[in-house]
Amino acid sequence: MSAPESLFARLEPLLPTVSKPIQYVGGELNSTLKDWESAEVSWALMYPDAYEVGLPNQGVQILYEVLNERDWIVAERTYSVWPDMEQVLREHGIPQFTVDGHRPVRAFDVFGLSFSTELGYTNMLTALDLAGIPLHAVDRSDDDPIVLAGGHAAFNPEPIADFLDAAVLGDGEEVVLAISEVIREFRGEGSPGGRDELLRRLAVSGGVYVPRFYDVTYAADGTIEAVVPNRPGIPFRVRKHTLMDLDAWPYPAKPLVPLAETVHERFSVEIFRGCTRGCRFCQAGMITRPVRERSIETIGAMVENGIRKSGFEEVGLLSLSSADHTEIAEVAKGLADRYEGSNVSLSLPSTRVDAFNITLANEFSRNGRRSGLTFAPEGGSERMRKVINKMVTEEDLIRTVATAYGNGWRQVKLYFMCGLPTETDDDVLAIADLAREVIAKGREVSGRNDIRCTVSIGGFVPKPHTPFQWAAQLDHDTTDERLRKLREVVRADKRYGRAIGFRYHDGKPGTIEGLLSRGDRRVGAVIEEVWRDGGRFDGWSEHFSYERWVEACERALEGVDLDWYTTRERDYDEVLPWDHLDSGLDKDWLWADWEDALAVADGSADVEVEDCRWTPCYDCGVCPEMNTEIQIGPTGRQLLPLSVV
Fold first, then answer.
1. Contacts of range 8-12, beta carbons closer than 8 Å, 24 or more positions apart
2. Which of 268, 301, 451, 630 has its CA 20 to 30 A from that of 427?
3. Backbone torsions φ then ψ of 339, nearest 5 degrees
4. What are phi and psi of 227, to 5 degrees?
5. Residues 513 and 462: beta-carbon distance below 8 Å
6. 609-633 per-residue burial string, b: 16 or more CB within 10 A, e: under 16
7. pLDDT-flagged residues of the chain (< 70)
8. Which three-class secondary structure state does DSSP give residue 434?
């Protein structure tokens, strides 16, 4: 391939005119800039948010490494430019560029975007437009890249189907290489049939979703009548990808070290993938099944390699529930022993109340300061926690925080959700009672008054491929009113109120996230309207405009409206926009779990779904459907000490 010209010479004189110019420079430690001419396939990878959010993203970093390890593939990165830079680029006719080689995004074969949140959709349109790539897939020529979406939000890509050439569900490590092979073979044959034939080859594999090859019809009441392939050989359902041997893929092996401040200044190691706790609200847990653990030796090797290659002094052991790793105690002790006396500190993300123990916490704080501990009860009342299958009692929580406060911790953060199905005002006000109990117990066991508890509350958004995918979303006015009442109750408490911090977001962004989460192809017109009206960085409160989204819905939607997509409960017979996208979960199992939640809510049943790591199978469908299995220890092995060379 002949190399496209670097845009840096045109860009550099303009950098002093924009905020945080360092984010556009590239050249980070461990970044890769390859010779373009020797490559047969090229990828521009994007996390559609600002550099400070996008660079630490593990998914993009992993794919960047996996692709660049092949000598016949070039992969570079691009991020969303801030509005001031967007204006500069438009004024000077400079297109969207990569930070590695400052090459135009349109010059690449594949433009791959990783969406962990739906609120990044308008940023995708900005990038496409700046790159000179037609917004609508139907308008693209053979000279345009294949625009490909992945990430958790890609499990329902229908709202952005008009803008995508393709989408991939699930783990990306293997499928990006398979896609690259298809492109290489297609090119080697002289690209017969052009863009349409390349997309057909990707689609017939069953592992790449190409929206243009599916027709959607609607019933008179606005619901979907059917989603069917519109040409021979295209599968009726597209399957997710599941990586089964995490030890064989120890990435990132060369973690990127940012030039500018980012949201996470640490090296992260994913210690296992998937979760089978069965929390009914949790899309991440449902779509990443089954659980696959990394071995203790691989974790140790990845930590040591990452520290050596990056210079980071904090290591985060990541997963959806890290304390559930079957050998987490051995991992924690082995790493704490290995790095004792050094500057390396270890951290866990929020810990399940029932998985916490003081020995584990002490190991993780051995080298670092005792920062606050974070727990996520999610529901304020015991009834609510049973509805969402978060089997944590008030006694569990108080016993856990008592242990923490009694062993020298001074701060605890509790995370809850507001707007869960069947929730009442009393369920939310119970959060205040729980926080008071936490402070009281902390003062009692520590003998001190400087005990703090921060309550953080997020709005619940029903997500595809979960038992709550049929649920009505709570309207933002009711959400805000419940949180206002809770805040007043906390502030009015003379004895404990000052010790309780209170953080929450208003309900309006959650309403729009709900529209985008469960929307169908008709929502694409709304996204485009918002973008054309100036919508950018909708995940940032200072840039988000609820009014802009409401007005766009009024202009772009016919026969349905914002409430139809958000506050309306669905029934079993309704065709959901993502029913043709296979996460492995059996729809009947999800529906039964939804009915169990409603039965728990009204007191007619008391159904607890245990973690299938430790119990017989619950027939969710993933393992037989995806030809996978749960992979857990214990292995009986140990974290090996460092060998001295």
1. 8/102, 10/92, 10/94, 11/94, 11/97, 11/102
2. 451
3. -105, 10
4. -125, 115
5. no
6. beebbeeeeeebbbbeebebebbbb
7. 1, 350, 368-371, 641-645
8. helix
CB atoms under 10 Å from CB of 636, counted, come to 8
418, 585, 565, 436: which is closest to 500 by C-alpha? 436
CA 233 distance to own-chain centroid: 32
Q: Is 584 left (phi over 0), alpha (psi -120 to 50) or beta?
A: left
Sheet holding 411-418, edge to edge: 373-378, 411-418, 452-459, 500-504
Burial of residue 550 (CB within 10 Å: 0-12, 13-18, 19+) is: middle
Per-residue model confidence (pLDDT) at position 645: 38
C-beta separation of 184 from 41 below 8 A: yes
Q: Quick one: tokens of 401?
A: 């925080």
How far apart are the C-alpha atoms of 312 and 68, rounded to whole Å?
A: 23
pLDDT for res 373: 85
Which residues are CB-contacts of 558 (< 8 A; sequence separation ≥ 6)?
A: none
Q: Which two tokens stand for residue 304?
A: 């040591």
- Residue 235 structure tokens: 């599968």
Q: What is the pLDDT of residue 371?
A: 66
585: helix, strand or coil: coil
Apex 243 CA angle, 391 and 344, nearest 5? 70
Looking at residue 372, its pLDDT comes to: 73
Measure the CA–CA gap between 414 and 396, rounded to whole angstroms: 13
Q: How far apart are CA 89 and CA 544, in angstroms?
A: 22
Strands 292-293 and 314-318: unpaired
Gap between the Cα atoms of 40 and 553, Å rounded: 43
Q: Is 380 helix (H, G, I), strand (E, B) or coil?
A: coil
Q: Which of 67, 433, 128, 418 has its CA nearest to residue 251?
A: 67
Length of the chain: 645
Report pLDDT for 423. 98
For residue 168, CA distances in Å to 114, 179, 236, 250 come to 10, 10, 15, 21
Of the candidates 152, 173, 183, the residue with the CA atom closest to the CA atom of residue 68: 173
Establish how many alpha carbons lie within 13 A of residue 216's alpha carbon, considering only the half-sphere containing its beta carbon. Answer: 19
Q: Phi and psi of 503, rounded to 5°?
A: -130, 135
3-state DSSP assignment of residue 457: strand
- The bridge status of strand 411-418 relative to strand 452-459 is parallel
Residue range 411-462, pLDDT digits in tens: 999 999 999 999 999 999 999 999 999 999 999 999 999 999 999 999 999 9
Q: What is the 3-state secondary structure (H, E, C) of 392-410?
A: CCHHHHHHHHHHHHHCCCC
Question: If we measure between CA atoms, which residue out of 347, 319, 353 comes closest to residue 335?
Answer: 347
How far is it, in rounded angstroms, from Cα 358 to Cα 366?
A: 12
Q: How far is CA 542 from CA 403, 538, 539, 546, in A?
A: 39, 9, 9, 11
The pLDDT tens digits of the residues spanning 582-609 come to 999 999 999 999 999 999 999 998 888 9
